[in-house]
Amino acid sequence: MDKEPITVSGLQKLREELEEIKNVKRPKIIAAIAEARGHGDLKENAEYHAAKEQQAQTESRALEINDVIARANIIDITKIENTGKVVFGSTVTVKDLDKGNKNSFKIVGKDEADVSKNLIYFKSPMGKSLIGKQDKDLVSVTTPSGKKNYEIIKVEYI
User: Fold this and answer.
1) Strand 138-143 relative to strand 119-121, pairing
2) Is 36 found in the same domain as 94?
3) Do 54 and 86 belong to one domain?
4) N or C, fewer C-beta in 10 Å, the chain?
5) Which element (helix H / strand E) includes 32?
6) pLDDT of 34-53, one tens digit each?
7) Coil, strand or helix at 115
8) Is there a single domain that holds both residue 54 and residue 107?
9) 102-108 and 119-121: which strand pairing?
10) Distances from the Cα of 122 to the Cαs of 9, 39, 125, in angstroms?
11) In the predicted model, what is the mean pLDDT of residues 61-89?
């Protein structure tokens, strides 16, 4: 069972999702199954089958979250001395050398990654190319749309 790095906020979000499953989703699904059973013949009862499928998906997600929490190696970036090096949990501001625009990314674990929120998985092409680099370093990333070149502008441990 490999430890999986996760940020403090990422772990908190998973715990909140698990509480939501336990306290809100499960009771609703149980009620929906009970109501659907009351409608008679279960073989042709679409509501019953939909509720049972939703129950299976919800329980699967709860097991997945429990597994991640059990394997979590919590990295609190605020407790690490900032040496200017990109590490797991750090927030990196880069300048796209081709387009000139700037972007900030937080390097996170698999369960936290969300490109739309600039949360980059540390094993993604972008994450791998940034980890270990320093402030002012030039970075080249091979993406599906071609090679991109960046300069690291700032590394924060926030």
Assistant:
1) unpaired
2) no
3) no
4) N
5) helix 26-37
6) 998 888 777 778 889 999 99
7) helix
8) no
9) parallel
10) 16, 50, 8
11) 94
